[in-house]
Amino acid sequence: MVGRMPRINTHYQKLRAGYLFPEIGKRVRAFAAAHPDARIIPLGIGDVVLPLPVPIVDALKAGAEEMGKRETFRGYGPEQGYDFLREAIAASYREQGAQVALDDIFVSDGSKCDTANIQEIFALDNVIALTDPVYPVYVDTNVMAGRTGEADDSGRYGKLVYLPTTAENGFEPTLPAGHVDIIYLCSPNNPTGAVMSRAALERWVAYARKEAAVILFDAAYEAFIREPGLVHSIFQIPGSRDVAIEFRSLSKSAGFTGTRCAFTVIPKELCGRDAGGGPVSLHSLWNRRHTTKFNGTSYPVQKAAAAAFGPEGRRAVQANIDYYMENARLIREGLSSAGYRVYGGQNAPYIWLRVPGGMTSWDFFDRLLAEANVVGTPGSGFGSCGEGYFRLSAFGWRENVEAAVERIRTNCRWEP
Amino acid sequence: MVGRMPRINTHYQKLRAGYLFPEIGKRVRAFAAAHPDARIIPLGIGDVVLPLPVPIVDALKAGAEEMGKRETFRGYGPEQGYDFLREAIAASYREQGAQVALDDIFVSDGSKCDTANIQEIFALDNVIALTDPVYPVYVDTNVMAGRTGEADDSGRYGKLVYLPTTAENGFEPTLPAGHVDIIYLCSPNNPTGAVMSRAALERWVAYARKEAAVILFDAAYEAFIREPGLVHSIFQIPGSRDVAIEFRSLSKSAGFTGTRCAFTVIPKELCGRDAGGGPVSLHSLWNRRHTTKFNGTSYPVQKAAAAAFGPEGRRAVQANIDYYMENARLIREGLSSAGYRVYGGQNAPYIWLRVPGGMTSWDFFDRLLAEANVVGTPGSGFGSCGEGYFRLSAFGWRENVEAAVERIRTNCRWEP
Question: How far is A10 from chain B (nearest CA, A)?
Answer without folding.
Answer: 6
